[in-house]
Automatic annotation (TrEMBL):
Domain CUB: 7-116, 152-273
Key word Disulfide bond present: yes
Keywords: Disulfide bond, Repeat
SUPFAM superfamilies (alphabetical): Somatomedin B domain (SSF90188), Spermadhesin, CUB domain (SSF49854)
Pfam families: CUB, Somatomedin_B
Organism per entry: Ameiurus melas (Black bullhead)
Classification via InterPro entries: CUB_dom (IPR000859), Somatomedin_B-like_dom_sf (IPR036024), Somatomedin_B_dom (IPR001212), Sperma_CUB_dom_sf (IPR035914)
Species lineage: Eukaryota, Metazoa, Chordata, Craniata, Vertebrata
Protein name: Deleted in malignant brain tumors 1 protein
Domain called SMB: residue spans: 117-156
C-alpha cells in the first residue's frame, strides 16, 4: 500500500492568504494525497474560487468543489488534467477536496479565492443567476438567494417564457431570457426545416452555459426529432465545432438545464443550403440564379 495523506485547512472572511496550492507546489504533489480546504465568508457574501494553474494526471487525479461546508453537499464541479475553472458558491460556504491515485504525479494547482457580495432577489423575483435563484423552484432545490423570503416568497412567480417550436427556412434561436441568465430546469426543443432537397445550416454565435457539461447543454440532431442521430453536443467548454449541417431537410436542437447553476445561454442562426458542401450564402446565390 502507498502513503496516504489527509490534511485540511479552514479560512474565514477575516483570515488569509487569498490563495492556496496543492501539496509541494510548484514541485510535484505526492501519490495518495487527500486534502481539503474549507472556505467561509461573512454575512451576505459568497465564495468565488478561481483555479489559475492546473496540471494534474487527467482522469485520475481530481479537484472537487462542493457548495457547502462539507463534501456531503452538492458538487459544483470537478477539475482534472489542465482544465481551468471558476466556481461560485450559493451560500457562505465552499469545500474543496484534492485527491490523487497511486501513480503518476504532476505539478499540481494554484487557486485564488475571494469573498464577493451575495446576489439579491430585490426586483428580481422569478429569475436566476449563476450562484443562486429567486425562482419559486429554489425552495425545492435549496438554492434560494439569501433574501428570497424577504422579497419573493409571497410574490406570484414570473411566468417561464415559452421556448422551442417549429421554424422554417432561416432565422435565429436563443435560450430563454437571452442575453440574460436562463432559468433552472429549462427544456426547449426546436425543429428546424428547409425546403425539399435542401439542408439546414446552424451556427452558434454566442454560448455561455453552466460549467457542468452533463447539467446544462445543447444537443443537435440530424432529423425531425430528438430520437434522430446526434451530431453534436455543446456545453460550457465548447469553443470549436460550433457550426452544424444536416444531411436532410430537418434538424432538431434541444436545450436542457438542471436545477442549479445557470449562464447567459446561447444564440444561434440557421438557414438553408442546397447540399452538405454548400454554405448558406452560396445557397442563396444559387437560388437567385434559378429565379
Amino acid at each position: 500500500m502507498g502513503f496516504h495523506r489527509w490534511s485540511s485547512m479552514w479560512w474565514n472572511s477575516d483570515s488569509g492568504p487569498r490563495e492556496f496550492f496543492s501539496p509541494s507546489y510548484p514541485s510535484t504533489y505526492p501519490n495518495y494525497a487527500n486534502c481539503a480546504w474549507f472556505l467561509q465568508t461573512g454575512e451576505l457574501q459568497v465564495v468565488s474560487l478561481n483555479f489559475t494553474f492546473v496540471d494534474l494526471e487527467s482522469g485520475w487525479d481530481f479537484i472537487r468543489v462542493y457548495d457547502g461546508p462539507t463534501a456531503q453537499h452538492s458538487l459544483l464541479g470537478s477539475v482534472t488534467g489542465n482544465q481551468r475553472a471558476t466556481f461560485n458558491s450559493s451560500s457562505r460556504y465552499m469545500t474543496v477536496v484534492f485527491s490523487t491515485d497511486h501513480s503518476v504525479t504532476r505539478q499540481g494547482f494554484r487557486a485564488e479565492w475571494a469573498f464577493i457580495a451575495a446576489p439579491m432577489c430585490k426586483d428580481r423575483c422569478g429569475s436566476s443567476n449563476s450562484r443562486c435563484s429567486c425562482e419559486s423552484s429554489c425552495e425545492r432545490y435549496g438554492r434560494c438567494c439569501h433574501d428570497y423570503y424577504d422579497y419573493c416568497y409571497h410574490v406570484t412567480p414570473t411566468p417561464v417564457p415559452a421556448c422551442g417550436g417549429s421554424l422554417y427556412g432561416s432565422g435565429s434561436i436563443s435560450s430563454p431570457y437571452y442575453p440574460s441568465y436562463y432559468h433552472d430546469n429549462a427544456y426547449c426543443v426546436w425543429q428546424l426545416s428547409a425546403p425539399a432537397g435542401q439542408n439546414v445550416f446552424l451556427s452558434f454565435q454566442d454560448l455561455d452555459l453552466d460549467h457542468c457539461c452533463n447539467c446544462d447543454y445543447v444537443n443537435v440532431y440530424d432529423g425531425p426529432s430528438t430520437p434522430s442521430r446526434l451530431i453534436g453536443k455543446l456545453c460550457q467548454n465548447s469553443s470549436s465545432n460550433l457550426d452544424f449541417q444536416s444531411f436532410s431537410s430537418y434538424m432538431t436542437v434541444m436545450f436542457r438545464s438542471d436545477y442549479s447553476g445557470v449562464g447567459r445561454g446561447f444564440k444561434a442562426y440557421f438557414s438553408s443550403s442546397l447540399n452538405q458542401n454548400t454554405g448558406p450564402e452560396e445557397a442563396e446565390a444559387k437560388t437567385e440564379d434559378k429565379e
